[in-house]
Amino acid sequence: MDHRYGRPVVDGPALRVVSFNLRNARAFDGWNSWWFRRRATAAVLRELDADVAGLQEAYLVQERYLLRKLPQHSSVGEGRDGGRKGERSPVLFRAGALRLVAGRTCWYGDHPDRPSRLPGANFPRIATVAELEHEGTARRFGVVNTHLDEREEANRVRSVEQLVGWLRPGLPWVVVGDLNARPDDRPLRLLEEAGLRSVVPSGDGGTTHQWKGGTRGRRIDHVLVDDGWDVVGAGVDHARPGGRLPSDHWPVWADLRLRA
Predict the structure, then answer these.
(1) Where are the alpha helices (H) located in 14-152, listed in sequence order?
(2) What angle do CA 65, 132, 201 make, to 5 degrees?
(3) How far is Cα 254 from Cα 224, in angstroms, rounded to an integer?
(4) Cα separation of 21 and 130, whole Å?
(5) What is the rounded (10 degree) CA torsion for 191, 128, 46, 65?
(6) Coil, helix or strand for 241?
């Protein structure tokens, strides 16, 4: 189901969830640098009309710009270097429809409560863990947004093992992010063993394109849910507002319904 055909009509609380690696604002990408494409990035997010969006590679300047363009949304999350510093993996949520109950940033490694990094990692890697309440029904659920290590599968595996431990029992959970892992790779298999399933159809193509706009790249961006959710539709979005690529990743989206 393509998001352009409108939201599905469902009986229970329904949410659109998006994961989008923005490509960081400090990267020099010539004509594709952030300052040239930021309007296209914001336009894609407006069109996707997410209730919850997990962003990756978002410096604070990018997050603030997008929140100005999406005034109905709020966000939660720290930078990977602590507080406002470094790349962020924020969770954006539709204020008024959803209420933030609790939110925290966790670091992968031996010190998840403060900036730290895994052995051999180029950067600290983080997960933003948020508990949200649906205002209309008072139903609560959890969201994790993350960006896993780009180099070492061992670090991605360890990160997933930690992430699973941060999912509070008794809540329905959604996990989104750039996992730097394909659907058949071990990190995804570990998430499946923990009771999460990937919801974006395999036939929708890849999510990275190195600024070429193709659809045959690696599928490393994911939306996963546990058995607390019904999946109404999901896909990879290939919108190019005004012909401009919004990032070097395509965003992924899913329409979900909380089970009774």
Answers:
(1) 34-48, 60-69
(2) 80
(3) 9
(4) 18
(5) -150
(6) helix
Instruction: Assess contact for 44 and 237: CB atoms under 8 A.
Output: yes
8 A C-beta contact, residue 20 and residue 257: no
- Tell me the chain's radius of gyration from C-alpha atoms: 17
Tens digits of residue pLDDT in 75-110: 999 999 999 999 999 999 999 999 999 999 999 999
> Which region among 12-21, 58-67, 136-145 has the lowest average model confidence (pLDDT)?
12-21
Task: Give the chain's domains with CATH numbers.
Answer: 13-258 (3.60.10.10)
Whole-number Å distance between alpha carbons of 101 and 134:
10
Token pair of 107, please? Answer: 């670091």
Quote the longest CA-to-CA distance of the chain: 49
Phi, psi of 252 (to 5 degrees): -115, 150
CA distances from 146 to 3, 125, 181, 189, 232 (A): 24, 8, 12, 17, 23
Rounded distance between C-alpha atoms, residue 77 and residue 59, angstroms: 11
pTM: 0.95
